[in-house]
Amino acid sequence: MGFKMVVVALFIAVAIRIASSNSEGDALNEWKTKLMDPHEVLQSWDPTLFNPCTWYHVTCNSDNSVIRVDLGNAGLSGPLIPQLSHLVNMQYFMVFGNEISGTIPGELGNWKMLVSLGLQQNQLSGPIPASLGQLKSVRFMTLNSNKLSGTIPIEVLELVLWGNLQTLNVSDNFFQGRVHAGDPTGYAVTTITQDPKIGSA
């Protein structure tokens, strides 16, 4: 009986891993279908494969879960999509230097493991979602050189003081207001770097 229980437990664990891998592959493939890829850098993103861990520009952990996407300066255009939030173990999302447009999906606030978010030098517009303030593990958030507007959510600014965020670059956008009353620069030219002497939660 004990042996059968072990076999069942192993089967369930494998099934969960397969389902997770397929879900992440589906999310990335859905994003691929929304992108223009003139240089065919996403050619290896084959949705018929078992999981996306063999795709170029994708890195997985030992559980075959995506932890990194590296697509900087890849000539891509198109939107980010909410389904990317299904990549629940994402740590590094680097898509700088493209023509990514539209808004930043609020669902990306579900990336609880995220360390670095590189969205600079694109064509992103609209506000920064307040949900990005949920990224307690993020250390680097580079959003500069886009067309973002509105005000920077206090939830995001608080990550500099109370989270692990060391660098928040929001320069060269269309933000309104200032970081605080004594700051002589506006959001549009602000790079906020946490003093390493200040403890982070």
TrEMBL record:
Alphabetic keyword roster: Leucine-rich repeat, Repeat, Signal
Keyword Repeat belongs to the record: yes
Protein name: Leucine-rich repeat protein 1-like isoform X1
Domain Leucine-rich repeat-containing N-terminal plant-type: 21-61
Source organism of this protein record: Rhodamnia argentea
PANTHER family: SOMATIC EMBRYOGENESIS RECEPTOR KINASE 1
Gene that this sequence comes from: LOC115738946
InterPro entries xrefs: Leu-rich_rpt (IPR001611), LRR_dom_sf (IPR032675), LRR_N_plant-typ (IPR013210)
Pfam family, one: LRRNT_2
Signal peptide residue numbers: 1-21
Transmembrane segments: none
SUPFAM superfamilies the UniProt entry points to: L domain-like (SSF52058)
UniProt KW Repeat keyword: yes
